[in-house]
Design brief:
mainly alpha; TIM-barrel protein, nifR3 family
Length: 32
Amino acid sequence: RPALPDGWLNSRELDENHKAMIAAAELDVSGG
């Protein structure tokens, strides 16, 4: 499971930092 706060999908104002955090979380979940 990605370590993301509940309702993050509801936020349409994700900045590049948040996108980077999400991408990093996805990479961590997929194992690289």
